[in-house]
Amino acid sequence: MEELDEKVKELLTKKTLALFLRPRGQGKTFFLKKLERYFAQERKIPVVHLSFGDRRYTYPSDLDCVVQSALKTLEIVYCIGKDENCEERDKNISEGERFARCITAIKEKTGKKCAILIDDYDFPLLDDNADENAKLHFESVLASLYGALQTHREYIETAFITGSFRQKSILQYAKADDVSENEELSACFGLKESAIADLARGDETKAKKLIDWYGGYEHNNCNAYSVISALNTDIIRPYTLAEKEVQKAIENILLSSFDFSLLLQQNGVECSEEGFFLYDNCSISPLPYLYQAGIVTKIKNREQFCAENTYFLSFPNKEMRDVFFTECARRLLSIKTHDIKMWAIDALRDIESDELRAFFTKVNGTLKNICAKQLRDALTTIFGLFSIYTNSYFCNGYFSVETPTYLHIFAFDLVSMQNAADRIYVNTFASGNKKVKKTGVLINSEKGVISYRTM
Fold it and tell me: What residues pair up with 398 in beta bridges, in sequence order?
């Protein structure tokens, strides 16, 4: 296990309470193991390591078991909470009070401040199987625990908290400094794209596929879990741990007025910096949730095209496109789940062969029982599936699909063919040596594609 960078060590000495947010699969747990080794072996100080990401949280007792077990272990190790006859006392105190008692007792018994490492601090709050009463219980217990960190800072050398989402409802008690954007610290997380070639044993084609599928995150990071899984199985496919987050994101998108065709724009969708961590408003604007879950990320080298404190967000790689649009297709399109990928590949073959009649017949087959409100989302899903396998994007009201021979431009309209044609008629497109096909499409929520005209 490699040593910590000196700048990271310096940062840890300056921050008593630090919060670091990254999507799942980005190596947070591995980094905390390095921190535990550093504090225990190099600094020779006591380490308290709490992890909440190892189980599901549906009932209040699920979190209680984890917390009680961790606190009981600390109390046994440091002989805390017992009288001279080793009988337990103060059995009815809260989890936060017990945790605070452990923190102070460690300092009194060892003469040293402790390092506290908390992995997946927000995980119990992410399980949608829990009812409202359970979630309120989870918030109460976690707020009590993290509040103990704030009130007992003088007994703590460093408290380092990791998670995926900014949970204001409980972070207000810990008052931790957010170090998620720190360059030196960020470099410690995830697998670097530069390291993929070594992992692929010099196979450049394989290395490029791994980066296309699992890379693209900020600071040139790849999803460590997915890369390792792909190398172990020798199969390039989605392995992300974020299926639950994707399902929740799509549910919020479909319930909101957010037009997720914007995610298919070449430059991504514009977002203000202050919006990145507004997790509590995900049902109103899903973008912050998409960003914190790792479904979208800041696009590299786009800052010069943005207003100050504004960025473009888009899918980092093919893995996230695959997981996101496959789940959208499962919910919206009349295609059997196990047939989704083959349907997309067959439809792309029709487009490449310029067999648009066959293509639109396939499209009509997927639009059964689609209401007018979901028609736009269904079309976005179809072209999003194409974006997994080829360049496919949305711009100025039309979708484009690039194949080896053609650059196909499709404009859909609910009112008239002329409206569709006008959106693409005056535009020119950079196609290289490919033939450009511009197609206006008249579409109806009940009948699907009614007619089309290629220019």
Answer: 395
The pTM assigned to this predicted structure is: 0.83
Pairing assessment for the beta strands 435-444 and 406-413 based on DSSP bridges: parallel
Distances (CA, A) of 207 to 4, 128, 140, 228: 26, 36, 46, 12
68: left (phi over 0), alpha (psi -120 to 50) or beta: alpha
Cα 164 to chain centroid distance, Å, stands at 8
Q: What six digits make up the tokens of 198? A: 């070594």
Closest CA to 271 of 245, 246, 301, 296: 296
DSSP H stretches of helix in 217-334: 224-233, 243-255, 287-292, 318-332
Instruction: In whole angstroms, give the CA distance from residue 334 to residue 391.
Output: 24
Report the Cα–Cα distance between both ends of the chain, in Å, rounded: 60
From CA 388, how far away is CA 392, in angstroms rounded?
A: 8
Name the phi and psi angles at 9, rounded to 5. Answer: -60, -40
**Hunting for tokens 């197609």 — which residue is that?**
439
pLDDT tens by residue, 90-101: 567 889 999 999
Q: How far is CA 435 from the centre of its chain?
A: 37
* Residues 1-4: contacts with CB under 8 Å, at least 24 apart: 1/33, 1/34, 1/37, 2/34, 3/38, 4/34, 4/35, 4/38, 4/188
3-state secondary structure of 51: strand
Q: Are 142 and 170 in contact (CB under 8 A)?
A: yes
Q: Which residues pair with 271 in a beta bridge?
A: 311
Alpha helices for 78-167 (secondary structure H): 95-110, 132-151
Which residues of the chain fall below pLDDT 50?
1, 84-86, 281, 301-302
The pLDDT tens digits of the residues spanning 168-179 come to 878 888 888 888
